[in-house]
Amino acid sequence: DAGVIQSPRHEVTEMGQEVTLRCKPISGHNSLFWYRQTMMRGLELLIYFNNNVPIDDSGMPEDRFSAKMPNASFSTLKIQPSEPRDSAVYFCASSLGVTGAQETQYFGPGTRLLVL
Amino acid sequence: AQSVTQLDSQVPVFEEAPVELRCNYSSSVSVYLFWYVQYPNQGLQLLLKYLSGSTLVESINGFEAEFNKSQTSFHLRKPSVHISDTAEYFCALSRGGFQKLVFGTGTRLLVSP
Questions:
Q1: Nearest to A50 among B42, B98, B106 (CB)
Q2: What's the rounded mean pLDDT across residues B32-46?
């Protein structure tokens, strides 16, 4: 199994530009999570999908952030327009999504975003 | 609301010494508890978890954690650490069902020779 796949691994962009992060969960997993990790705020859950439906998006910082899961094998996190304070490592994770939060989450390698 | 407190941001230790990473939680309902590990430049990996049953849970690489309901703690221990254990360790909890995981701020374990 290839594990959770994220692209790009690194992204450098200028303030105001649109950024799209991509995630392919492990095949057969029904839950998908987007996290953001910074030195100041630690690891934060942004949004959580189950069976392609957003379950909890209370962590999405503001309207500049949006996430979609058009099918079971693909999700995107978009930031438009980007700001320097969005610089962070963004992780995607997936789990079986059958019984809920007690299931192991499998994390991707992350996308390191730098907004200049 | 639930919360997780990891009291130590960094724990330096010599190789082959024992270590304890502390985790306390706050919740008014029963929770599931987890320890995840993050090696440099990688995503998080599950180390061990407590769901129910025996309060002592073990990982395959020698770590163990004990759920203590009266002290609302889930401390992580290892009797003898290796250089390769250098990583950041995150404690997390969940109420179960389709509730999200709540992570602590992490403890960086630094093992030196």
A1: B98
A2: 92
